[in-house]
Design the sequence.
């Protein structure tokens, strides 16, 4: 297929346009760029965000709903959580921080489920700091690889449990990072 430069693509320099069109490397790059532009109409990077808080010694369900017009291929999960209460000591203080109990270093657990199929994507409840990066803000890791295709109108269910004292509220942010696909039904 002959892919010639678009009009005006190289300004008023037809010699340069001809040279680029005849060079196999540049021709290959131009084809790749055109392909990416065409694919982007049907696939693009997207982030679903979920944030909330949960009181101590309780469990709560949170949902992310995939919109009707697109499927979502999740590639990574990341997030952060924190809890600070100067009045009440945490049952989960930051590790290796003697005497500092106002900041919690753990305490939340999460179970992730594909609501449409009922498939659990975690083995029961998993401590949040093991999945989310930077977790409780103590270190930075790569996002957790969670590769799963959620269909349109799907709900991703996050069952979150706070194991800390009844007076300790924990706050969280979770992001599912991946690609949206606008494909025919």
Sequence:
């Amino acid at each position: 297929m002959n892919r010639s430069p678009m009009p005006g693509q190289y300004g008023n320099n037809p010699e340069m346009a001809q040279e680029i069109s005849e060079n196999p490397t540049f021709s290959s790059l131009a084809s790749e760029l055109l392909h990416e532009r065409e694919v982007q109409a049907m696939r693009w990077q997207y982030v679903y965000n979920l944030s909330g808080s949960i009181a101590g010694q309780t469990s709560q369900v949170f949902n992310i709903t995939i919109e009707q017009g697109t499927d979502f291929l999740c590639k990574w999960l990341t997030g952060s959580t924190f809890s600070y209460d100067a009045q009440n000591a945490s049952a989960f203080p930051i590790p290796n921080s003697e005497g500092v109990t106002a900041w919690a270093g753990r305490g939340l657990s999460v179970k992730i489920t594909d609501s449409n199929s009922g498939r659990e994507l975690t083995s029961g409840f998993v401590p949040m700091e093991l999945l989310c990066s930077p977790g409780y803000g103590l270190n930075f890791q790569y996002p957790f690889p969670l590769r799963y295709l959620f269909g349109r109108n799907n709900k991703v269910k996050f069952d979150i449990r706070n194991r800390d004292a009844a007076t300790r509220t924990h706050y969280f942010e979770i992001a599912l990072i991946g690609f949206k696909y606008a494909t025919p039904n």
About this structure: The beta strands are 43-54, 59-65, 71-82, 108-114, 119-120, 126-127, 134-135, 144-150, 155-162, 170-181. The longest strand covers residues 43-54. The chain has three helices and ten strands. The chain has a mean pLDDT of 86.
